[in-house]
Amino acid sequence: MLRRVPLPKLRSPSAAASLQTTRRYAYQKATPSTNKDDSTGHPSNPSDDPKLSPLYTPLTGRHLLEEPMLNKGAAFTPEERERFKLKHFLPHEYHRLETQLSRAEAQLRSRQDPLAKYSFLRSMKDQNQVLFYALIQKNLKECLPIIYTPTVGDAIKEFSHLFRRPDGVFLSYPHFKEGGARYLRDALTDHGALTKDDIDLVVFTDSEGILGIGDMGVGGIGIVIGKQTLYTLGAGIDPNRCLNVVLDPGTDNQHLLNDDLYLGWRHTRVRGEDYDKFVDTFMAEAAEAFPYAMLHAEDFGNANAYRLLEKFRPKYSIFNDDIQGTSAAALATLTSALKVTGSTLKDSKIVLVGAGTAGLGITIGIRNAMMKAEGLSKEEANARFWLVDRYGLIHEGQEGIRETQQEFARSKDEVANMTSTNEKGQFNIYDTVKAVKPTVLIGTSTISRSFTKDIIEEMSKHVDQPIILPISNPTSLCEVDPQDALDWSDGRALIATGSPFPPVTHPKTGEKIKIAELNNALVFPALGLGTILSKSSRLTDGMIVAGVEALASLSPTLSDSKAPLLPDLGEVRAVSIKIAAAVMLSAKEEGQSNNVGQWPEEREELERFIEAQMWKPRYRPLELVNTAVAQ
Ligand SMILES: NC(=O)C1=CN([C@@H]2O[C@H](COP(=O)(O)OP(=O)(O)OC[C@H]3O[C@@H](n4cnc5c(N)ncnc54)[C@H](O)[C@@H]3O)[C@@H](O)[C@H]2O)C=CC1
Ligand SMILES: CC(=O)C(=O)O
Ligand SMILES: [Mg+2]
């Protein structure tokens, strides 16, 4: 017979206290002296390990098992089972994390379909956070394409069908209209349970431009969760100090609007002043509630991404990953590629296809580097770019050019000499490549396999080692399969892609060649970590450039010209330490850091300090507190 389990005491103060206590007490900031143990395993009896500081919680019994931040499942020790009234909820045996991992790995691998693996991992995240992160960290190469691109894209499309339980903060426009700023504040702080010191990072989207798959409505929470997971895996940002947020101003995705199971606000997107008021108020409330947090914007549509970044950057600690993160990763890749070709930024001719959020971010980032590092004027640097968008090469007088693209429009005189193979007289990618003879070809267009054989062959006629970066995600939207790019360039192309690809075969030598993954995931976790650890109120361009230089200095091609252009995403933690150190030192130099003196400035010592600060998936001892203490 089922016995009814008593409900938790939901009266104030305990209701608010459960999350507050978990979050507040979860963050016992590691110091080098208390956190010398850097292994990811857990000690034989966690409660007795003096190296790990405890977490405090008022939760017991079923409520403790249901709290993913604290749940250890079968790894609750016999003593903890007694103290936290867990004995009757758990089978007899006590298993260490290592044993739990073996079971979890077998369960993961028993699922063949990537989406089924995704669902498994998502529910593990909802149940036992330490096990989730330990599993992925141990099997990073296998799990990254599941929790991130490409599978996350499929999961987002299916969000309302796969939905089991929520993870994150859902902010819908009609609730905002009714409750105004107060509603947003209550939602973000969980009605006051979270206070200003509790959160380091807010990741948020309005879901209009998810990866390359477009408007995904409330399903965009999936990319937010994916990015937050990478902050934790890649840079050790404490998951208990992150807030995942989706703004739901409606959706223009007709398929979702017609779907009976759709879970978001069933309404077309609110735009104009109403939208701005929603986002402006959200930013103001988030910044006031968590004044030390970095606010990470993800996958906004291109009509809003730049506009909002420019508007909010002077006021808040905002970071737009698609603009700034992608630009940083691309600049590091290009720097590595140019070391191989023996060329420079200013000697490059760059054709970029898809001048939207990511494409323009990359263009501006490289353009600024040409000016700063190689002394070009803005006009001289702009002249190294040819941007091709949906109406072909962007040039003066062309209809449909967006304001953000304007400064890169080619002159009328230049295009007067070009030949169009298009019945509308537009200059497509082939026409542009033929006329320009570029050294670099970048794809951020979302147009699958649009770098065709004739384009790659034409480019390869004029340059020894064409640099080809098709970085649209997910895999299905990549502009060219790397094997094709290598075959069509006689094995000469230097390639990096946005989603992971298996190694390719050199068409002449038969050698296996690894393809670098040019994804902002290699850099944004560390940009965030550096900003958070240096308590910087802004992530400046200078801090980002310091991170780019650190990343480029880790390129495997520096020691082997046939190696991938970037470090493997599987090594992101080690990479993050170097990038974060560079970011922190730059923050200090620029006067952005608000805690100079509290961290070492000598590079190696700083790297050890950063490593020690990183959250690691280990079970920590638990201490029972009563709610009065929690308050
Ligand atoms: N690898 C990475 O780290 C990143 C990759 N991306 C990928 O880049 C792609 C673009 O993303 P966003 O810039 O956010 O999207 P977006 O929508 O802002 O930009 C896409 C651009 O491509 C243009 N376009 C559409 N059809 C075209 C055509 N036939 N020819 C040329 N251009 C065309 C659009 O007009 C738009 O300007 C996505 O697939 C996204 O996943 C985005 C950010 C990071
Ligand atoms: C990687 C990423 O941010 C994107 O594809 O949108
Ligand atoms: Mg993105």
Describe the structure.
The chain is α/β, with parallel strands linked by helices and 631 residues long. It folds into four domains: 14-139 and 625-630, Hemocyanin, N-terminal domain (Up-down Bundle); 148-316, Rossmann fold (3-Layer(aba) Sandwich), CATH 3.40.50; 325-519, Rossmann fold; 523-613, no CATH class. The chain has 26 helices and 16 strands. The chain has a seven-stranded mixed sheet, with helices on both faces. A five-stranded parallel sheet has the order 2-4-3-5-6, sandwiched between helices. The protein has a two-stranded parallel ribbon with strand order 1-16. Helix 22 (524-533) packs across helix 24. The two termini are 37 Å apart. The model is unreliable at 1-21 and 24-49 (pLDDT under 50). Bound molecules: 1,4-dihydronicotinamide adenine dinucleotide (NAI), pyruvic acid (PYR) and magnesium ion (MG). Residues 298-299, 321-322 line the site of magnesium ion (MG). 1,4-dihydronicotinamide adenine dinucleotide binds at residues 209, 211-212, 302, 322, 326, 329, 353-359, 388-390, 444-447, 471-473, 477, 498, 518-520.
